[in-house]
Amino acid sequence: MEPENPMAGLLQQAQQMQQQLLAAQAEMAAAEVTGTAGGGLVSVTGNGTGEVTAVSIDPKVVDADDVETLQDLIVGALADLNTKRDALTQQKMGPLAGGLGGGFPGLGG
């Protein structure tokens, strides 16, 4: 009986990881993430791939004499959105990157 071809096993493992990566990327694109600031007075919604899809501003924070506060709230909501998106990315993609065993620069540990 011939020994099993180790390259065939590696190829199959790589194909499985590619399928898992594509599935995780699709989940990220379909995910909806919302960042908020000012106790929800400003919210920014986006998907897991970096696209901003909606902005909501409570009329209470619209003051022509205090535009800076509104600007700060928008920046804060965007920062919160990015933090939540990063957490989602780590949740969905982290296990896949770790599965590469550090064999590829920039992926895994």
Automatic annotation (TrEMBL):
Residues 7-34 form a coiled coil. Belongs to the YbaB/EbfC family. It holds the Pfam family YbaB_DNA_bd. Binds to DNA and alters its conformation. May be involved in regulation of gene expression, nucleoid organization and DNA protection. Its main location: cytoplasm. SUPFAM superfamilies: YbaB-like. This is Nucleoid-associated protein DFR67_108229. Homodimer. The keyword Coiled coil applies. It comes from the Bacteria. Gene3D superfamilies: Nucleoid-associated protein YbaB-like domain. The keyword Transmembrane does not apply. HAMAP family: DNA_YbaB_EbfC. It is found in: Cytoplasm, Nucleoid. GO terms for cellular component: bacterial nucleoid; cytosol.
